[in-house]
Amino acid sequence: MSATMSGSGSAPCRFAHYFVICGIDNETGLEPDALAGENFDQSPLKRTFKSKVLAHYPENIECNPFDQDAVNMLCMPKGLSFRTQRDSRTPQFHSFLITREDGSRTYGFVHTFYEEVTSPQICSAMQTLHQMHQAEHNASAHNCPSSSSSSSSSSSSSSMDSLASSLDEVESPSSTSSSQGGRRSCGCSGEGYDSVRDTLYVSKAMCLITPMPFMHACKRFLSQVHRAVISNQPPPLPLESYIYNILYEVPLPPPGRSLKFHGVYEPILCQRPGVGELPLADFPLSKAFQLLGVENLVQIFTCVLLEMQILLYSQDYQRLMVVAEGITTLLFPFQWQHVYVPILPASLLHFLDAPVPYLMGLQSKEGTDRSKLELPQEANLCFVDIDNHYIELPEDFPQFPNKTEFIQELSEVLLSFGLSPEGGNTSSEPAVSSQTSVLEKELKSTSLSELVDDRKNGNLGGEALDVLELLQGNPTLERLQALAKRTGVKVARLEALAAGQKAVGEEGVGGRSPVEEEELRNAKLNVQLREVFAARFATMFADYESFVIQNSPDLESWLTNREQMHNFDKASFLSDQPEPYLPFLSHFIETQMFATFIDNKIISQWEEKEPLLRVFDGRIEKARLYNVRAPSLRSSVYQKCTFLKESAQAIEQRLRKMDHTAIHPHLLDMKIGQGKYQQGFFPKLQADVLASGPTNNKWSNRTCSTQRRVDRHRQHNDHLVLDNDLKEKYMQEARSLGKNLRQPKLSDLSPAVIAQTNWKFVEGLLKECKMKTKRMLVEKMGREAVELGHGEVNITGLEENTLIASLCDLLERIWSHGLQVKQGKSALWSHLLHYQTREEKNEQLSESPVSNGQEKRKPESSVGLPALRLSVIQDMRHIQSMGEIKTDVGRARAWIRLSLEKKLLSQSLKQLLSNQALTKKLYKRYAFLRCEEEKEQFLFHLLSLNTVDYFCFTSVFTTIMIPYRAVIIPIKKLSNAMTTSNPWLCVSGELGDSGILQITKNVLEMKFDCQNLGKLTTVQLGHDNSGLLAKWLVDCVMVRNEITGHTYKFPCGKWLGKGVDDGSLERVLIGEFVVPCNDDDGGRGSKTPPLQRSPSQIRRISITSLTGRGNKPTTVQIQESIGEAVNNIIKHFHKPEKERGSLTVLLCGEGGLVWALEQFFHHGFRSARIFQKNVFVWDFYERTVAFLENADQIGDLQEKPEPLGLNSESFCRYVNAINSMPRNIGKDGKFQLLVCLGARDRLLPQWLPLLAECPVITRMYEENALLRDKLTVSSLIAVLETLHDFPITLESSLTKSVEL
C-alpha cells in the first residue's frame, strides 16, 4: 500500500492518472442497456448492451478518485455495439470530461475499436436473439418492410462526413464490401447474424484519464497502442511497459515548457502555455470553425456569454466535445458557471428538463430529424445541429459588439491557414483540405476514411495509394494547390499524404514528421483564434477596474455580506460605453460568469489572483503601456488584435526545442509467460505491475518535496486566510445555483438522487426569483432606495429592459420545469392557452361574461371614467390581436410586460395557478409549480413589483394600435353642462399625437383608436364658439389607455369661450399620471411619488387673481420655485436621452418654468379693477410692445445701447406673432407660449431688463413688485441664463401655427 501511496503522492504532477479498458464482460454476457433507451424493434445487432469497466490502473488516486460508473458511461455513452465482417469497423476517437463538485475538471480520451468475439456463449446468445427477432418480424408482417434498403440509403447518403456516425448504428454493407456478404431476398436478413457464416465483432474502448486536456498527445498514444494490438509483429516491448511509462514516468510539462515522451512507435510531443499566456486548450478550434462556420460560431458564442441554454446536437461524440470545449475556451477571461455536459449519456436525458442555463451535447441517432426531438423548453434555447451546419437562436437576441469586423478578423486568420470561413461539413477525421471534403462526399467510399485514419500512423495501404492518385488527378484540387503555393500557404495535409509513400519513420519539415507539422499548425491556429477573442474582451473591459466597488475591510466580512453588496458600478460602466455596445453589455454584466469574474477580482486583494484573471489583467496592463488610451473611451472603432505573431512564435519555439524528455519505456519486472501477444486482441495486462509507480523515481521525489513545501506554506497562511471550505460555502451561496449542479452525478441515478436534484432546482429558482425582484425594485426606486442604504441610484431604460427580459426568461424556465408534455416553444403561453380554452368553455356554458375572480377593478379615483374590466383572458386577447408578434415566446413576453405594467403580474399568475386540476394535468409532481410553499413565496416576491410603476409594455410595443377613452368633465355648478358649440380634442404623447378629434355635441365621452402615443403629455381642448351657449367651464379631461389601464388627468379649471375669463377658445392642458388606488389589492395601494403635473384647478384660478386672495406666495417662495423649475430642466438634460421623459411637463406643468414665472410676474401686479374686467400679465406685455414701437418711431430708442434695441425688436416680433396667429388660446395661453418660445430661443434673460425698465411698469405694478427690484431681476437673469447650454425643443401642440 505504501508503494501505491508514493505513486499517488505525485499524482497531481503526472501526465495521466488512469488507463482504463471498457468492453464486454464475458462472465455476465449480454445485458440489454435499459437506460440507453431499448428498442426491441431493431435487429439485435443494432441494439445497445451494457458495457463494463474491465480494468483500470492504478486502483485509485487520492486527488482524483476513480468513478467507475461515470467513466464507463462516458467511454461508451451508448453501451456496446456489435458488427459483423460486412460492416465498417473503423476505430473512433472521442473525448469527454467530468466536472467535479468543486468545479475542477478531469479529461478522458477514448479510442474505440472492434475486437472479434471469441466467447461461444455470446455468439450463440446473439444468434438466439436474432432468430427470435426474425420470428417476431415474420409473424408481424409477411411481406418484409425494406428496413435494409432504408438503412443502406441512409448509409450512403451519410457519405464521408457522417463516417463519425454513432458507434452503435449499424452501417449496412457499404459499397466496398457489399459483394462479400451480400443482401439476400429479404432485406432484414441482410443485416442479420449467423454464427456459422459470420464473424461477430464487439466494441472495446481504451481510455486515458488526465488532469489536463492534452488531446493530441493522448490521441496519438492510444492510436499507437491500438496499432501495436493489430500489427502482425508484436510491439518492441510488452504493452505494460508503455502504459506504466505514461502513468508513472511521464510528468506534466511545467508551465511554459514542452515535453517529449515515447509511444509504442514514435515520440509524442506536447507543450503547455506559460504563466502569462492563454491557458491550455488542445481541442482543434479549426475543426469547430469548419463544422459551423465563423458567423454561426460567433452567434453561439454570444448565446454562451449571455448564459442561455445551449444544446449541441451531432452523431459524433468528438464533434460535440470539440465544439463545447472550443467555445468555452474562447470565453477567456470568463468561465462558464452552469451545467456543463458536452456528452449527455442517454440515461441522463431527463437533465434537459433543468430550468437553469446549460451547455450540453446530445448524440443524434442516424436519420432522426430535428422536429422529432422533444425538448422541455425552447424559449431561451440555442439549438446547434453540428452535422447540418445549422443553428436556431433564441428571440430578442442582442448582437456581439462590432460583430461584422470581428467576423472579418477571424476570417482573415482562418484564410491565412488555408481554411474557409464559411466552414462546411468535413469528415470526422481532419479533412485532407477544405476542397477535398467535397470530393470525399463524391467518393462515398470507406477506403479513404481508412487512409485518413491510417495516415496519422504514417503508413499508406494499397487502396490508399489509388485514392491518392485519384486525389492528385483531380483538376479542381490541382488548381487549389497551385493557388495555395503562389500565396505561400502550404497544403500540409496533402503534402503529408504524398510524403506517406516514403519510409514510415522519415521526418518532414525541420526534422518533424508530417503529423507533428500538422499539430504545430493546429496549435498556432488555435492560439491565434483565441487571441482575437481575448483582444475583444481586453478592449471592451479595458477599464473595468475603475468600476469595481471594493468596500470591505477583509475577506471574511466581504463573504458574509456578499449578497447585500454592490460589487460593480453597472450604471457608470454602461454610461461609459459606446452606444452600439449597450444592448449586449447590459445583458452580459448581469450574468453569473461576469459576477464571478468581479468576485475573483475583489478576492484578489486578499489572496493570490485566480490564473485567468492574472493573465487578463496582464494583457490590459500591456495594452496601456503600448498605446496610452485617450480619455474619451466612447469610441466604438474596432481595434484588431496585435498579439497574433508573438503568441504563435511562443508555441513554435517550445515545439522546436524540447525542454524535457521523459524516461523511455523499459522492460518491467513481469512474471514469465504473461503479456502474451495475440494479433487483433487486446491482451490481459498484468495488474500487479501497473498497480503502483516507482518508489525511487527522482522526479516523483522532487514533486513530493515541492508538495511538502507547498503544504508548509499553506499551513503558514492558514491563520491569515479564511478556511477554504467556509469560503467555498459562501461563494456557493452567493451564486444563484451552487457548483454542485454543474454536472449531474453520473454514478447514481436512483429516484432519490433525481428527486434531490430537482429539489435543488426548485430552491435555486426561488432564490433567483428573490434576487431578481429585489434588484428590479432597488433599481427602480432609485434615490429613495439609495437613501435607505441599497445600491446605486438611477436605473437606465436599457438596464430596466435587461432586468425585465431576464425576469421573462426566469418565468419561462419556471413554467417549463417538470412539464408532462411539451407543447409549443413557450411553456407559459401554452399554459395560458389551456387556461383560456377552459375559461371560454365555462363562459359559453354559463352564458355570462368571463368572470375571472378579479373581474372588476373599482373605478379609478377619477370621476366619469367607467371601470375597466380586468381579466387574464382580456389581456391575452389584446396580445393575440397584435399582428406584430409572430411567436408564442414573443406573446408570453408581451403578456408578462403588460401584466407588469398593469401591476397584475402576481395576481394573474396566482389566478392561472388556482386552477389546480389544470396544473396537475400539465405538470409532474416534482415541478416547481406544484411545490405549494415555494409557489406562494414566488408569487409574493412578484407582488413586491407592484410598488413601482413600469411602462415596459407601452415603451416596447410602440407601433401597435391602442384603443383610448377620453372623458371631458365640466364644473357643473358654475357652468352649463351642455354647450351649443362643436368641441374638439387632440391628445399628444411622447410618441406622437392623435390628430384633431371632433367630439359629438353634448356627449362628453369618446373612444378612439390610434397608434401607441406612449406616455401622454398634453391635451388640446377647444370649440368653435357657435350657438347661444358657447361658454364652457371645464374641470379636467381624463384619458385612459384601454389596454394597459393607464389613466391621465389633464386639469383645466378655466372657461373656454369669448368674453369670459381670458377669452380663450382653446387650451393646452398638461397631463398627470393617475396612480390607481385600489383598496382590494394589498400590494397595489403603495405608490411611487406622482409625476410632475399641471396646476390643479384651484391653483389655476388663484394665480389669475392672486391679489384678490389672502394666500399670496412670499418673495422667497417665488424665487425658490423659479430656481427649482430651472434645476429640474437642467437635470432632465443630464439624464441619458432615452430616460428623459417629457420636457413639456417641466416647462408647463405644476412647478414648471411657466408656472414659476407666472408667480413672479403676478407679484405686485395690479390686476383687479373695480367695475372693470380683470387685467392679465399679457396686457402688460401688449402695452410694453405698444410703447416700444411708438418710442422707436419717435426715435427715443436711438440713444439706447445697441443690444437693448435688438432685444426690443425681438420681443415685439414674438408678441405680435403670437397675437396674429389663428388659434384662439387666450391670454394665459399666450403668456405660456411666449415663455416657452423665449426659453427655446434663449431670449428670456434679454427680455427681462426691457420689461423692468419700460415706463409702463409704474402704472401696472406696485412699488414693491419683484419686477421693479433691480437686484431680483439681475439674479433671475443669471438663473435663466443657465438654460442656454441646453437644446430646448417644444412639442408641436404648443407651437402650432406660430409664424416667426
Automatic annotation (TrEMBL):
Chain segments annotated as transmembrane: none
Domain named PLAT: residues: 962-1070
Main location: membrane
Disordered, as annotated region: 134-189, 840-862
Keyword Repeat: yes
CDD domains: PLAT_RAB6IP1, RUN2_DENND5B
Record's keyword terms, sorted: Guanine-nucleotide releasing factor, Membrane, Repeat
Statement: the UniProt record of this protein carries the keyword Isomerase: no
Single GO term (MF): small GTPase binding
The UDENN domain, residue ranges: 33-608
An example Gene Ontology CC term for this record: membrane
Residue span, RUN domain: 798-958, 1144-1295
InterPro entries: cDENN_dom, dDENN_dom, DEN5A/B, DENN_C, PLAT/LH2_dom, PLAT/LH2_dom_sf, PLAT_RAB6IP1, RUN2_DENND5B
Subcellular localization, as worded in the UniProt entry: Membrane
Protein family per UniProt: Belongs to the RAB6IP1 family.
Protein name, per record: DENN domain-containing protein 5B isoform X4
Gene behind this protein: LOC113065410
